[in-house]
Amino acid sequence: MALLNVDNVVKRFGGVTALRGVSLVIREGEILGLIGPNGSGKTTLVNVITGVYPPDSGKVIYEGRDITKMPPHLRCRMGIARTYQIPRPFNNLTVLENLMVSILNGRRHGKISVDEAKELAEDILEVVGLSKLKDYQAKSLNAQGRKRLELARALGAEPKLMLLDECLAGLTPSEVSEMLSIIRRIRDEKNITILMIEHLMHAVMNISDSVVVLNEGMKIAEGKPEDITDDVKVAEVYFGDRELALKFVKR
What we know:
The chain is α/β, with parallel strands linked by helices.
């Protein structure tokens, strides 16, 4: 069943067209990998889905409802949450307080008490491995801790759909492995659908049920991870040379 349907979305910034008629479907319960070179339109697409940017044309349909003109905070309360490439915590609040802010403004906005929010926050911090740091100020966290807090804050909104924008960037290989395990657990145990932007190809291919590839604002490929790795057009975009691309997909 389709949870989100992006239908022929176009987004321009002055004379630059960042998205050129992009369409995709995110099915309930899947992890969808969104890949492409820098400047291909990946984050712009996330910003359109979450309401940061209005599209110049096209529609965003969530749970069968047209949300194209809905503001970001209402989309969040409907169950759409996201992370940012560069984490944006409230630096002078504790890790626990940061998460409680998200919970109190998420899907249960106005319907959850502070005590309930604190209890839920502690459960989420256990999931992302930050329980021991809950009373530390966010500004004291290292890169891995800030990435995990960013993920926790998205979870705090209690989403049905979570958009992860390069949540593995800057992490060591062991940290990447740990984060992938957390993401799988979130999908499997909490039944949260995930769209994941990532430049680490092995990570995307390892965790995704399906993959969409953007280049210069256009969708150039879509399919299962094994189909994408065998796609000459995709390899050519990454290598910039058709002969190298052909050698890559024939390995």
